[in-house]
Amino acid sequence: MCHSLPPLRGVRGVTGRFGARLAAAVAERGPLCAGVDPHPGLLRAWDLPADVSGLERFALTATEAVAGDVAVLKPQSAFFEAFGSAGIAVLERVIAAGRAAGALVLLDVKRGDIGSTMAAYAAAYLTDGAPLAADAVTVSPYLGFGSLEPALTAARDSGRGLFVLARTSNPDGAELQNAVPPRGGTVAQSIVDEAAACNAGARPSGDVGVVVGATNRPGELDLGSLNGPILAPGFGAQGAGPAELARLFGGPDGPLRHVLPASSREILRHGPDAAALRAAVRKAQDALASLPR
Predict the structure, then answer these.
(1) What would the DSSP string read from start to end of 85-116?
(2) Could you tell me which residue ranges the Orotidine 5'-phosphate decarboxylase domain spans (predicted)?
(3) Considering 39, 60, 101, 110, which one is annotated as catalytic?
(4) Is the four-CA dihedral 21, 23, 29, 35 of positive or negative sign?
(5) Contact 206, 19 (CB under 8 A)
(6) What share of the chain is helix, strand, coil (3-state, %, to 5)?
(7) pTM flag (> 0.90)
(8) CA–CA separation, 179 vs 39, rounded Å?
(9) SS3 annotation, 1-15
(10) How far, in Å, are 34, 60, 228, 271, 284 from residue 267 at the CA level?
(11) Per-residue pLDDT tens for 2-51?
(12) DSSP labels, 166-207
């Protein structure tokens, strides 16, 4: 489904390819991916109203507190969409503030569709000048990896990245993702292999990553040829620590060096105090510093 990478055309919003920018950010700030998830329960825990004013205070406080210290900031779009157009306006501000603080913004939208609809999603999130354009987005390949072609093309042309759902950590995902199609291997492995084809020859890393839950069982996937980033949600509150990451993703010569452990609740529960949020980020970064990379 992927073709050799063409020269960048008319890139104004970003400079250079996503894989190279991500590698540089991780080298400077470490691999932690900090989520901005304005979950209703967290709004209550911060003693904020469940309205747009509470959303705005929560999201911007969290972004301003952590975005200057992490390589990747990951807003979860659904929690903003729940408030309609006013919530989307807050999301636009979060994206802009995160990038202004030097973080790469990975917008967690999990979009997946076909044809012109997928092209419209790509225009919304992966096109220079779009109000919701981020450095990368999450996408779902479960209408077929080929359905992602408009997003793959838009990302290639604009220097942005994709993270493709492969082996998610939710229990219901296993039935589909670990299914074995007639050609052999699992569905999840076929997604990893398609992403690897997109990243072939890229240095220091490709632009097409995969999502693999940090709480999954070791040995389900062969990630050795991916040559791209691995978003690993579940670090922290869901129970995965450095030892689990090392078991799942291998040593420094394996895919572990490409892993972005994602943490949301474990950090956000320390708000609304900005200093406490920053301290939670440092604690997570210190824990990850023990990993061989």
Answers:
(1) HHHHHHHHHHHHHHHHTTPEEEEEEEE---HH
(2) 31-280
(3) 110
(4) positive
(5) yes
(6) 45, 15, 40
(7) yes
(8) 32
(9) CCCCCCCCCCCCCCC
(10) 8, 15, 26, 8, 8
(11) 754 443 433 345 678 999 999 999 999 999 999 999 999 999 999 999 99
(12) EE-SSTTHHHHHT---TTSS-HHHHHHHHHHHHHTT-SS--S
Average of per-residue pLDDT values in the chain: 93
Please say whether the dihedral angle defined by the alpha carbons of residues 262, 175, 189 and 115, taken in this order, is positive or negative. Answer: negative
Active site residue 110: yes
Distances (CA, A) of 132 to 195, 234, 279: 24, 25, 29
Buried b (16+ CB within 10 A) or exposed e, 192-216: bbbbbbbbeebeebbbbbbbbbbeb
Whole-Å CA distances, 113 to 87, 179, 187, 195: 23, 21, 18, 17
At 33, list the tokens: 């991916």
Cα separation of 149 and 7, whole Å? 17
DSSP reduced 3-state for 154: helix
**3-state DSSP assignment of residue 123:** helix
Q: Cβ(247)–Cβ(273) under 8 Å? A: no
**Residue 29: other Cβ atoms inside 10 A:** 18
The most distant pair of C-alpha atoms in the chain lies apart, rounded to whole Å, by 53
Q: Which domains does the chain have, with CATH numbers?
A: 18-288 (3.20.20.70)
Give the C-alpha separation, 214 to 247, whole Å: 10
